Amino acid sequence: MLLSCWKRVVPLLAAAVLTAPGCKNPESAAPTGGPSEASAPAPAAPAPAEPAAPVDPAAAVSGIPGMDFSSLSPTAKRELATVFSDDFCYCGCPHTLGACLKTHTPCKHARRKAQVAARMVSEGIPATEVILSLSTYYSAFHSPRAQFKVDDRMCMGSAGAPVTVVEFSDFECPYCAKARPVLEAFAKKHAQQVRFCYLPFPLAMHPNAKQAAQAALWARDQGKFWQMHDALFENQSNLKPEAIAALATSLGLDGAKLAALLKTDAYKEELDGYRGQGRAAGISGTPSVYFNGRALDLAFVEPEMLSHSLEDELEWSANKNAWAAD
User: Which of 24, 56, 112, 212 has the fewest CB atoms inside 10 Å of its own CB, making it the most exposed?
Assistant: First the structure.
């Protein structure tokens, strides 16, 4: 299986309209009776229905208690109005998201979902893709959770935290480098609620990824995993073995010893184990992030969505895998 770095993109959707002849009504066949039937006047055609009044996007996204979307552009308001009319709240009420926001005001779930949708449309994402992404996100709570074996030495945050966030990452992956400061800042901000764990997943497409992962595990065994982790990402453009050994020296470690180790298959079994965990969880690229074993779509790796996902995960686990009643 060929794996690759993720690109932070939202897939385009192709919309198709399906038409079919449908079932024919036997009574609509040509008449076969006598002249009286043939001469019967045809029924009057029904009067054309009045066209439905167009929905005013500004009105659809306004008048919501405690929420203000006035800063959105007209285009974003139109897309958000479509989300409000076509999507439903995940709290379980029989209302569209827009109706839930206006008539079921105690519902905190609708407000969370609306905030995420507003951020997405503000970035130019169309309503169809917003609805698809949100559906993928919320359906993940009902899917089986992946199980991971982590190393405490490659984790930050409280060991007793209610939420463990696991990241599969490659030191030569540019998207991992971009996600790194966001994920680490999030973990530090929520240190009592989140335990953040790094799992190396070197990709074959990156020539120095394996040696970088070896160096990180070796530095871990010397008590300096996070220092080496940071140094590798900060020098991502040059991770040749001799450069990695120089990083070790700069961290007060034995660079010559690491240089010799990088010429061997040291840590092969452990790295194969991490790859096996990732493949079992179904990852197809790096970085891949999991909240208590629940995959988080990479389009959402941003501070606001990470906090949103944490709030959802805490509620879900506190209510024994269910949403709290409003």
Answer: 24
